[in-house]
Amino acid sequence: MLSLRRYRHCAACGALVQYRVPTEDNRERAICVDCGQIHYENPTNVVGTLPLAPDGRVLLCRRAIEPQRGLWTLPAGFMELGESVAEGALRETLEEAGARVALDGLLSVLSVPRIGQVHLFFRARLLDLDFAPGPESLDVALFAWDQLPWDTLAFRTVRKTLEHQQGGGAALLIDTL
Amino acid sequence: MLSLRRYRHCAACGALVQYRVPTEDNRERAICVDCGQIHYENPTNVVGTLPLAPDGRVLLCRRAIEPQRGLWTLPAGFMELGESVAEGALRETLEEAGARVALDGLLSVLSVPRIGQVHLFFRARLLDLDFAPGPESLDVALFAWDQLPWDTLAFRTVRKTLEHQQGGGAALLIDTL
Ligand SMILES: [Zn+2]
Ligand SMILES: [Zn+2]
């Protein structure tokens, strides 16, 4: 696993931290050498949608930012404090693709332990075709399923989610990548 | 919403942070006044199981720790770096209830924006009945569905998940509490 440790200093008082196992815990945490505060580090959620047009085509975004600039992805991004999983997925779809959708249930929950993330995608219906790339996208386009850009997809979680939907997508896909 | 802000000092260099909106962002982040590092804060996942015995009874734990000490809960806890959602749920079930289970699919995904959490529960089958309370539990017991301790449950997400399973639990429950 990559080191996902983020603390060198205490977020409360600014003193140095040491990574060690606190009493009554069983893994190393960032503990402040001065005030003693324990800083926990946990996986983050990436939330997004697989937006379908009435004719069955799927909406993809071409990334304007790193990582994977220039490659195609489903609209998705980090879930924010103060929102639900569903609200986050709707917000990211609007921000990245300028698209308004209705959610049709959860399609995939994909853990990516190596980078400390969980990716959650909803199946969604486009409410209109007035989409447009947001600041993080170079382009937004609808693709027929036999013309998906499989060779230029940005992320494995996007590929897995597209493959699952292509196969019917009946059951929720829960997997680890 | 509660303030969920955790940073007063920079985790990289220890200088003070200010909360302001970075260029090309749309919400306030903790930004170091010295080294400029941006510290993102995102919701955390709580993962657990609803363990069922062969006779249909459900396993609950009575909490030995705050919050809600003394009340009954499903085995669950914070997902850790380096594990998948499923691995976290299995680990928490073992740690809190000393129980070995097989997962039978995701039962609920419950966002709790007020506290910046997402709770994910799997339906699970107990592989044996050799369970025992871990350090965070006062007691572990099997309950018939008509004898569940509804009045002394620890958390609303636990109640919602139990109610969903009691109602059949066919579809995945996605909700916000
Ligand atoms: Zn400190
Ligand atoms: Zn700094």
UniProtKB/TrEMBL annotation, chains A, B:
Residues 42-166 form the Nudix hydrolase domain. Keywords: Hydrolase, Magnesium. The keyword Hydrolase applies. One of its GO terms (molecular function) is hydrolase activity. CDD domains: NUDIX_Hydrolase. Its cofactor is Mg(2+). Gene3D superfamilies: 2.20.70.10, Nucleoside Triphosphate Pyrophosphohydrolase. Pfam families: NUDIX (PF00293), Zn_ribbon_Nudix (PF14803). This is NUDIX hydrolase. It comes from Inhella gelatinilytica.
